[in-house]
Specification:
The protein is an all-alpha fold. The chain folds into three domains: about 10-80, no CATH class; about 85-145, no CATH class; about 150-490, no CATH class. Helices cover about 55% and strands about 0% of the residues. The protein has a two-stranded antiparallel ribbon. The termini are far apart.
Amino acid sequence: MPFPSQSADERRPRALVIDHAWRALGPGTEPLSGPGGAPLTRTVKLIVLPLIVRPALRPELAADFLGPEQAAHLDGLIREAGACLAATAQWFTRLKKARRALGVVEGNPQDLYFQRCFELATEHGPPSADADTMARAVVEEVAETLGGRTVDALKDYLADTGRRLRLDGELASAWENRHSGPAMAPATPSPPAMAPATPSTPAPAPALASAPASAPAPDMSAAVARAAEVLDACAAPGRAGDPSSYAAMVEAGHGELFGRALWARANGVWGRGDLPAPLGLTGRPVPPRPEIGRGASTATLPAPLDRTLFERLFVVLQSSARREELPTVPELVAREAGRSCAPLGLRDESLRVVVVLGGLLAAGLDPLGTGQAVPGRTAAHRAVNSRWRREASVLRARRMTVSPRPDPDGGALDALAQDLRTPWAAYMRRLWVRLHGRDVRDAPLADPASAWAVLDGVARSVMMDHRARVRSALRTLSTGSARPAGARSA
């Protein structure tokens, strides 16, 4: 049976199918829903997809666009889970109440409790007479699994004066010697050492003196050419990609090469003179020596390679749903000190290679269809750009770029349109964060298929985030009021 108002040959976005089915559930799921009644992003990510849809077991539902039969199947799965979802919402309310009573403040409650609440709902149904006791036990258990892996623990650890002095010396030494040897994992072969790079900022102390300014930037042409081969293969319909090209990039150290090129202020890397080589990874001429830092806020985080040690680990601790898998805070800090002085701020070479692949993809993103192209446009560029150009928010932004009328809200929509003129910055920022999280967990990307899953997933995430921001701006215009978005800080 076709999805409502869906013709027999029409394909419908999976996100729209989920939204339609969710709203049809009626009252009872408010704790899992946003102000407009749609499921929260974390509800979809943590509950609907992995626990109800289960794309790994139902690959026909894994696509972003579904035919009539698949859409009807997905719609039915969500509706059948309606009672369990309502019970999940009730359990979530109980766990938040227990959390407040216990004085637990660390971590995002949705990340920590959504899946546990679904488990409770599946096993016990709606909360019963002993629900408060069970909720308290779950909150205590989750807090215990964090094992001190919290932002507050990080802040306390870095507050010690002696520890800060020792750590600062280690950072200074690692940064000064960053050109003297391979920065990759020991098992990965490294290219010949490059010449020293230009300094990023005046050195505050003799120990931080950088390499001579005359150091040439490494030639990235071979790496970019190989990256184009990988992107063209892994995103082409019906092809998984030739693993040998990807493996060759890793073995040749092309990711490390790119990191050293940024230290030497490379230009023209991507075949377009109007694009800076870092593509938003740093806001400086070259990445600066990392500092320790004392606090962080999601609203004011600098570019990835400009972040302090505290800011880098703040993001890891805030975004980790399974913190028990992370090293302890002292080990996290020790590892991050070395990682922050490595090329691209990453240790694993496969992850650095994915930065090169992502950079080439980002350099060719053109959601507005302006015609700007990077030499060697690949199947990956065609796939991502065509998907993005179908977005209603993009179509509106495209009209705004040629409209002589001023932005009626004083700039918010125009700023969103501007984001689409420089989409590479948001893409690279999000890609680096995901790769950094994998590096912290020692989770390399061993083949082109897994690399493409990350690259494509980041593109979808950036696109959906932009869509949500456009909707929020339009909602603000319609109500005539604007509320600043909240931000986490420490």
